[in-house]
Amino acid sequence: MTNISHNEIIPLMQNKAIVIYVCLLVIFQNCYGTTAIGSLSSLKVEPVVIDIGEHIPNEKVVVESTISNHGSKPVNIKEVKSSCGCMVVNPASYVIGSHESVKLKIDIHGPNGEGVFNWAVWVTTDEPNVFFHEIKITGKFIAKEHLLHAFPDAFDAGTIASGSVISRVIEIERDGEVPVGSLKMSASAEWVNIDTQEKGDNVLRLLVTAHIPKNIEEIKEEIIIQGKDGSDLLRIPIVGKVVSSIEVSPKMVLVSSQEGEYRFSVNNYDGTIPRLLEHKFHGNGLEMQSCSAYKNQTNHLIVKIQRQKSQKGFASGKLLLKYEEQEKPIEIMFVSP
């Protein structure tokens, strides 16, 4: 009996649709043979087997496969799926004209540990006689001697306010209790600082501090640690979601009368009341009579809105609030049926 490694089973079980794809492929190949797919299809895939060779864990690899249409009619690539979340394929959908071709770019992010890479990409088309085309990708991820490790292996900032500062301690070690040695460290963003907090022979402790900018909504950066050998490389992802440091509630108001007064609360991450610099109202059938800011959280804003008498149908308006030290204005919507 052939032994199947844990690393090969887990990616296939992550998505039920992938398991169904595999089962259908086995049935189809048993009934018709692999050559039947090519004979029924006007598409030709080259190569259908890609050997990426040997790479170190966590390494990024990019490969390509070309799909050519030798038929007289356009073929629609409806969907491209992979057997592992570690692979991203572009384009994911495409129409290939007669005697045209398209290159599929396959980005592979290797696993953290060692193992055999034996996964696949499935290309589903609208051809009536063909299920799908399979591209097999094989290879190995092998740890070099004394591979670097990070604990934790990622800097997860979670959900954090823009303009905030957050720090994490990360320890760097090597396999086999070998001294860490000389390392070069850098970050993909200038607002990430790396300081050596404590250094021993076998453990290097780093203090990583991120000064979150005010103009981003998501954190997708990384720390790069490089040893003397070119393959002695460690990447530590920095991820997180950035939200506004000021929260105004509610964000949408139903205007039900000709004129009404509406109150809004404000919360700041540091507990202070922010200073309102300016406000603008853009209305379609609604007019703003006044907008007043106060020094309390529960009734920080009091806004008076009036519906235009000439407006018979749906009316709406948008209030833009610009606060001190806030990069983007906060929006409040007013609607009136």
Sum up the structure in keywords.
disordered N terminus, mainly beta, Immunoglobulin-like, five-stranded mixed beta sheet, 337 residues, four-stranded antiparallel beta sheet, single chain, 25 strands
Summarize this entry quickly.
This protein has helices at 6-13, 16-32, 34-40; strands at 43-46, 49-55, 60-69, 75-82, 87-90, 94-96, 101-109, 115-125, 132-141, 148-151, 155-161, 165-174, 184-187, 192-199, 204-211, 218-226, 233-243, 246-249, 252-254, 259-268, 276-284, 286-293, 301-307, 315-323, 330-336. With 337 residues, it is mostly beta strands. It has 3 domains: 6-141, Sandwich (Immunoglobulin-like), CATH 2.60.40.10; 148-243, Immunoglobulins (Immunoglobulin-like, Sandwich), CATH 2.60.40.10; 246-336, Immunoglobulins (Immunoglobulin-like).
Mean of pLDDT:
82
Please identify the structural class as seen in this structure: mainly beta
CATH architecture of the largest domain: Sandwich
Low-pLDDT stretches are 1-15, 28-38
Measured by DSSP, the beta-strand proportion falls in over 45%
String of helices and strands: HHHEEEEEEEEEEEEEEEEEEEEEEEEE
How is the main sheet built?
A: 5 strands, mixed
Q: Helix coverage percent of residues? A: under 10%
User: How large, in whole angstroms, is the Cα Rg?
Assistant: 28 Å
Distance between the termini: 69 Å
CATH topology name of the largest domain: Immunoglobulin-like
Global morphology: flat
Total number of beta strands: 25
CATH class of the largest domain: Mainly Beta
Whole-number total of structural domains: 3
Give the strand order, joined by hyphens, for the main sheet: 2-9-8-4-6
CATH homologous superfamily designation of the largest domain: Immunoglobulins
> Number of DSSP helices?
3
